[in-house]
Design goal:
- With 213 residues, the protein is of the alpha/beta class.
- The chain has one domain (3-206): Rossmann fold (3-Layer(aba) Sandwich), CATH 3.40.50.150.
- It contains eight helices and seven strands; from the N terminus they run H-H-H-H-E-H-E-H-E-E-H-E-H-E-E.
- The chain has helices at residues 3-13, 18-34, 49-58, 60-63, 83-89, 101-114, 145-152, 170-177; strands spanning 72-75, 94-98, 119-123, 136-139, 161-167, 181-189, 197-206.
- Strands 3-2-1-4-5-7-6 form a seven-stranded mixed sheet, with helices on both faces.
């Protein structure tokens, strides 16, 4: 997907007012400006930001249309991908989870500059977050599926919708996690990269072994 195609895809699939589009443009500018200070995105994606990062994040909203109302939790938010993009394009409350201090400072700066009133940052590891129930949980380049589910199960219930970009290893990660986790899992193709995929799941719960619980 080219940069022009990425912009066109967002326009075609999301209702993007001028002010919202301006926030997306400014977020891209902030990402590129901050690259010299910390490794927010790979240098190889500098000329492909809209395709590799913005549209790639925006497509997750397609799978969230059937989610319940409530908070969207983005694990390991890093540069704000996909969390900040989702928050710009949606009014849903967003909680960005990030443990690295520089990234936390970056995210808080973005929230302030873009005036994103629907976004908060939890500065810490997912495992130490207070228990809550998210309507949606996303995670991009966070951890293998089994470890991801273990670290965040206390943030979900059977209605939580999991939307997890998994690159080219989606099916392998799913098969590896199946012995320990059950639920309704779908592997969906990415619109930005035909070789990448997105894991979408609901009713996820741990499989109890004999002698447990």
């Amino acid at each position: 997907m080219s940069e022009e195609e990425a912009r066109a895809w967002i326009m075609a699939h999301r209702d993007v007012p001028r002010e919202t589009w301006g926030r997306l443009e400014r977020f891209v500018a902030i990402l590129l400006e901050a690259m010299g200070e910390q490794n927010l995105i790979a240098e190889s994606t500098r000329d492909h930001v809209w395709a590799r990062h913005i549209a790639d994040s925006a497509q997750l909203l397609t799978y969230a249309e059937q989610a319940d109302d409530g908070v969207w939790i983005d694990l390991g938010s890093g540069a704000g991908l996909p969390g900040v993009v989702i928050a710009i394009l949606s009014s849903r409350p967003m909680l960005l989870v990030e443990s690295r201090r520089k990234r936390v400072d970056f995210l808080n700066g973005v929230i302030a500059e873009l005036q994103l009133g629907n976004v908060k940052v939890f500065a810490g590891r997912t495992e130490v977050m207070p228990a809550m129930t998210a309507a949606v949980i996303s995670a991009r380049a966070y951890a293998p599926l089994g470890r991801l589910l273990c670290s965040s199960a206390h943030l979900a219930d059977e209605k939580t919708l999991w939307i997890l970009p998994k690159g080219r290893n989606a099916q392998n990660e799913l098969e590896t996690a199946r012995p320990a986790w059950q639920g309704v899992f779908h592997v969906e193709p990415s619109v930005t990269d035909p070789e990448s995929a997105i894991l979408v799941a609901r009713n996820v719960k741990s499989v109890k072994r004999k002698g447990q619980g």
